[in-house]
Amino acid sequence: MNKSELIDAIAADAGITKAAAKLALESFLGNVGATLKKGGRVSLVGFGSWSVSSRAARDGRNPQTGKTIKIAAKNVVKFKAGAELEGAVN
Asked: Transmembrane residues, as ranges (predicted)?
């Protein structure tokens, strides 16, 4: 499912226009992104939770040349599925 298909499904399920569903989805995504950018955590009970984790700088290897390269430290987003979501797919 891509973004436009999700918007269509939200609109149909909620009985709202596609424009309203698009605004709601974009608001959700924007708020999740803003919360994570601040270092916060977003939890939806039964669905899952998003959090930010720091990945330390490390040495890597270029597979073509075999040379060692430096990989910079960065923050990464992690998602942990909730029990209901895991149950739904298993």
From this structure: none
Q: Which two tokens stand for residue 54?
A: 């720091």
The Cα–Cα gap between 22 and 33 comes to: 16
Q: pLDDT tens, 37-82?
A: 999 999 999 999 999 999 999 999 999 999 999 999 999 999 999 9
How distant, in Å, are the alpha carbons of 28, 54, 58, 61, 68 from that of 73? 28, 7, 7, 16, 16
In sequence order, the β-bridge partners of residue 59 are 70
What 3-state class would DSSP assign to 38? coil
Length of the chain: 90
The whole-angstrom separation of Cα 27 and Cα 21 is 10
Q: At residue 55, what is the residue type? A: R
C-alpha span between 52 and 32 (Å, rounded): 11
Q: Residue 29 gets which letter from DSSP?
A: H
